[in-house]
Amino acid sequence: MDSDCNYFFNHLKQIDLATDETKDEALEAAENAEETPESNAEAKGSKASKKAKEAEEEISEEEEIVNLSDDDEDSDDEDSDDDDEDEDDEDSDDSDDDDEDEDDNEIKEELEQVKEKKEFNWDIDKRGGNLYTDQQIEELEDFYDGTFHNIEEHEIIEGRVSAITSSDVVLDVGFKADGLVSKSEFRDMPDLKVNDRVSVYVESKENERGQLILSRRKAKLLGAWDSIVSAYENDTIIKGRVISKTKGGLIVDAFGLETFLPGSQIDVKPIVDYDVYVGKTMEFKVVKINEAIKNAVVSHKALIESDLEEQRQTIISKLEKGQVLEGTIKNITDFGAFIDLGGVDGLLYITDISWGRINHPNEVLELNQTLNVVVLDFDDNKKRISLGLKQLAKHPWDVLPEDIKEGSKVKGKVVNIEDYGAFLEIVPGVEGLVHVSEVAWSNQPINSRDYFKLGDEHEAVVVTIDREERKMSLSIKHLTEDPWEVVPTKYPIDSKHVGVVKNITPYGVFVELDENIGGMVHISDLSWTKRYNHPNEFTKVGENLDVVVLEIDLDNKKIVLGHKQLEEDPWDTFESIFPVGSVHEATVVKREDKGAIVALPYGIEAFAPTRHIKKEDGVLAAVEETLEFKVLEFSREDKRIIVSHTRIIEDEKLDGKRKEASEKKEQARKSNKAMKDLNARVEKTTLGELDVLSELKAKMEAGEGDTPAKGEE
Fold it and tell me: CA 342 to CA 330: how far, in whole Å?
């Protein structure tokens, strides 16, 4: 095969040489035609044209040499024949330049040769040998085309190692030039030798120096990335080597490409020390890829979970409710424990650990403890298995001794405390409630969280028991006799006693008269004259307080006490002292949102609304300020007095207006009287003047015609 290739390429070179020489002759002939005198221009042009035509014919003949199948000697003979013909042509050209007649003769001879060539048998070459057949020509052309490859940049191709130097590896990729790849890129192939085939990446078909640029490293990376993408798309398992530790996980070499293994994806169990995995070769699944930055995330946990899932499915398919299995405690939490049943986990909830009440599973369980559990329920869809431990034993209520009945005394430990009472555990799994009302005979409120403490033991009496409902009520106060049976004789109504203040509420004071016997003094029964916002303004817990029994309720075991009833009701007297409309001097003792509390004489308090404590200058009366107040309302039944300072000012203003009006009225009366006197006097004067005029008129009438004397006038 190599000899055929050499023969083939030698013929190609000869064709190129022959073609170039023939073309040179044609060009030279054309130049000579231009240099001849005008008289010979036409002849020379004709000759040049013929020579060019002859050169073209010779070129076509020489191209047919490609189809020849002669050996190397025939090729050499052919080359020599061609050389002879070339020499003859050159001699002919020289003779044409010297003698035009000889040129004409030669042209004629050449024309005759052309005619002879037209009759030439084209199936026979110049040496008389037969040409290749069409099939042989096609095979040679295919072979020739197969020696060259069309390669493109940025693709991965395969090449043959043709040589290895101290620094580079020469690769034959079937291109017009061989490629050089740095020997450092073959460090993972120490046994590389000539004729080995490797994959490389075409970076550039031709750089500025005309060299083919190849890279094995990029080919490896692209090949590795393709493998990783294929593993991700097909969900296949790959192998990788952990090469280093990084923040949050490990770096894994997969197919020569660095991938990230998060710490949470190493194992199903939390991993603390990552260093133990460095250097290990493990199997992984590709769980995430990023095409943009060629980055991938792998997981070893996914393989374990898939194996566990298979085991889980196998175990769950065989599960039945009530089935007893052996398991190992793998984790304990506040709400229960996780039990490994051999590839699948089940949850043992805290309420299913013991019939008795426990605060935390670690009170009865330990890590890695092996124990039998019963399957309570399981969910195929949610992959949940509920387990029980206490169900392996009978319920304590079913084996509760028959001697525990109503009226029997029991002893228990406080296991739970609520606002309404405490639960005593008689035996593990059997509890009874001690209500706060069953702690003591006293009707004083009891705070269960203050009285009971977790873990304390108390003795109690069974009040009620229901084995079917599994309920029991207990009582501590029934351990002693009921003191209320002697209350009517020991604490009759209207009897006076001294008690101790045990508790204070916003509505009253609880007073203990005797052990487990007490009553309440309502806030309204503390004082006849004062109003308290809270009983702690009147007394404190632990102080002695004089009281009188007002009412007794044996059914509800209640005693109503009073303190103000120790004195006579002063309101009968106050009604005559503070009648409506009376004015008294009082002191403001307290300011409230709606008004003020004022202290009247004799220690009684009254209320003045805000609009009734406004002084003459418009300012409200201040605390400790003493002013005059007018009684607006007095209620003996409600023990209430309403007073006003502003009303006094208004009354004074009204009295002033009335006095002023009275004075004006008196003045008007006096003015009217004076006018009447004046009018009377004026009237009298006018009448006298009228008499004089009458007399004068009479005189004038008597002396008509007489002219009075001048002296008379």
Answer: 11
| Per-residue 3-state assignment (H helix, E strand, C coil) for 242-275 | EEEEECCEEEEEECCEEEEEEHHHCCCCCCCCCH
Supply angle C-alpha 651, 656, 662, rounded to 5: 125
Query: Directed axis angle between helix 72-98 and helix 38-63, to 10°?
Result: 180
Mean pLDDT, range 687-707, rounded to an integer: 61
Angstrom distance (rounded) from CA 532 to CA 527: 9
Q: What is the pLDDT of residues 430-446, one digit of tens each?
A: 999 999 988 887 766 78
Give the C-alpha distances (Å, rounded to integers) separating 424 from 36, 354, 491: 141, 16, 35
Under 8 Å between Cβ of 462 and 406: yes
DSSP H or E run through 425:
strand 421-427
Check if the beta carbon of residue 493 is closer than 8 Å to that of residue 550. yes
Q: How confident is the model at residue 460 (pLDDT cuts 50, 70, 90)?
A: very high
CA separation (Å) from 135 to 6, 7, 128, 349, 629?
21, 19, 21, 87, 142
Determine the Cα–Cα distance for residues 602 and 574; give it in Å rounded to an integer: 9
Q: Greatest CA separation found in the chain?
A: 213
Tokens of 712: 């008379």
DSSP state, 444? S
**CA triplet 83, 85, 89: central angle to 5 degrees?**
115
> How far apart are the C-alpha atoms of 268 and 285, rounded to whole Å?
14
Select from 424, 416, 420 the least CA-distant residue to 351: 416
Packed helices 100-118 and 72-98: angle between N→C axes, nearest 10 degrees:
140
Beta carbons of 639 and 604 less than 8 angstroms apart: no
Which of 205, 165, 199, 160 minimizes the C-alpha distance to 182?
165
Distance (Å, whole) CA 506 – CA 27: 133
- 387, 346 Cβ separation under 8 angstroms: yes
The tokens of 135 are what? 């099939």
User: How much is the average pLDDT of 527-556?
Assistant: 86
What percent of the chain stands above pLDDT 90?
Answer: 9
Q: Angle at CA 229, nearest 5°, toward 226 and 234?
A: 120
> What does pLDDT average to over the chain?
75
- CA-based Rg of the chain, rounded to a whole angstrom? 68
Which residues have CB under 8 Å from 187's CB, separation 6+? none
Report whether 549 contacts 497 (CB < 8 A): yes
pTM: 0.37
d(Cα 164, Cα 162) in Å, to the nearest integer? Answer: 7
DSSP H helices in 578-645: none
- Amino acid 475: pLDDT: 93
- Tally of CB atoms within 10 A around 547: 25
SS3 238: strand
Q: How many residues does the chain have?
A: 713
Taking residue 373's Cβ as centre, other Cβ atoms within 10 Å add up to 25
